[in-house]
Amino acid sequence: MLAVFEESVAKSPEALASPHSSESSACALKDGFLAQHFSSKHSGSVTINLASSGFLAFNNEKQNPLLPRLFAVVDDIFCLFQGHIENVAHLKQQYGLSKSANEVIIVIEAYRTLRDRGPYPPDQVVRDFNGKFAFILFDSSSKSTFIAVDADGSVPFFWGTDAQSHLVLGDDSEMVKKACGKSFAPFPKGCFFTTSGGLRSFEHPLNEVKPVPRVDSSGEVCGSLFKVDSESRKESFGMPRVGSAANWSQNY
After folding, report:
1. Does residue 25 register a pLDDT over 90?
2. Which range marks the domain in which residue 21 is found?
């Protein structure tokens, strides 16, 4: 799976960019560069144009049967999901979903509940997903993203920033590197990223997530890895519920 988002939709952390990024990165969105490269590499792939916000792409070839890829769209909410969730039955009941709902539908409904009513903090929403997963969600109504990886990093998942500061995400490191050069790194385990809140840990929601310079085999700094800082603490963010009509997309 692959996604590229404009900076206004998903602003990548500054530390993700390599000091030499201009020398090695490209523009992922220019003339459909990365989407075309993805299509040429994966026969039968599907690309979803998100207009000025970017694009999503996925394919079903060479899938790991234990970590399948899923895609769904519900009410202008797009979601790419890879992996599996073990407590599916419990989550279906929690969110009032039908027996036929799968993991990607659960993620969309969990996000929509968070956006519209905010009954739980966002870190709890992700922490409630017990399993091995990575997902990319885009809400076209609010131009917002919601991205997460499980606590063990079970699904290979990478992110980076290209020459025009677009955020690039995918499960293929070579695909991300094609656009981002040295400005890419594994997406941090046990973390989630949102348009309004940036990168946070759902395992340790009261601790800051800080960059650690990443050095390649030649000794050059190549962006950063992000780690939970056990020494830092931040204030807990509350979401007082004000009714189902409220849009929480600017608060999570």
Report:
1. no
2. 2-228
Note whether 53 and 45 are within 8 A (CB). Answer: no
Q: How many beta carbons lie within 10 A of that of residue 221, not counting itself?
A: 13
Q: Give the dihedral sign, CA 44/47/79/204.
A: positive
pLDDT band at 233 (very low <50, low <70, confident <90, very high): low
Tell me if 176 is assigned to some domain: yes
Model pTM score: 0.89
Residue that is written with structure tokens 């900076």 in the block? 7
Residue 148 lies in a domain: yes
Alpha-helix residue ranges (DSSP H) falling in 55-102: 88-94
What is the C-alpha to C-alpha distance for residues 195 and 190, in angstroms, rounded to an integer? 17
In this predicted structure, the answer to whether residue 249 has a pLDDT above a threshold of 50 is no
- How many structural domains are present in the chain? 1
Does any domain span residue 245? Answer: no
pLDDT at 250: 52
Q: Residue 124 sits in a domain of what CATH number?
A: 3.60.20.10
